[in-house]
Amino acid sequence: MAKYLISFPSAAMVVPDGDWDAVSRDSHAVIEEAKAAGVYVFGGGIDESVPPVLVAADGTFTEGGYSWAPPLNGGFAVLEIASREEAITWAARLAKACRCQQELRVFGFDPAS
Q: 74 with 13: CB under 8 angstroms?
């Protein structure tokens, strides 16, 4: 079993104002189905009202993330699934519920995690 990250940036969600309640309902329903299927690990949305902090190895920190990287925002879910095909199926379900494409990535195996 591998863990998959299913995510989207905030800008991908172009939803008419009157549809937000349906998007919330539908996306939460897919997450509940993932929990019932035993594949849900965790998920949520990045709180964009809290700025990132870049922390150095010595513990010093500065406001903001990497200046050269695109901002990390939007929503994500981590699911533990037996196959890439099944992960694509779950990503498609979330894409339909969220009304936007989802990016699918697999985490590298770490025997210590």
A: yes
Measure Cα distances from 100 to 13, 61, 63, 92 in Å.
6, 34, 30, 10
User: Per CATH, the architecture of 2-106 is what?
Assistant: 2-Layer Sandwich (3.30)
Helices (H) and strands (E) in the chain, counts: 2, 6
Q: Kindly report, residue by residue over 38-53, the tens digit of the pLDDT.
A: 999 999 999 999 999 9
pTM of the model: 0.90
Q: Is 46 exposed, middle or buried (0-12, 13-18, 19+ CB in 10 A)?
A: middle
DSSP one-letter code for 4: E
Q: Which two tokens stand for residue 16?
A: 């008419």
Residue 44 backbone class (left: φ over 0; alpha: ψ -120 to 50; beta: rest):
left
User: Taking the domains of the chain in order of start, what are their residue ranges?
Assistant: 2-106
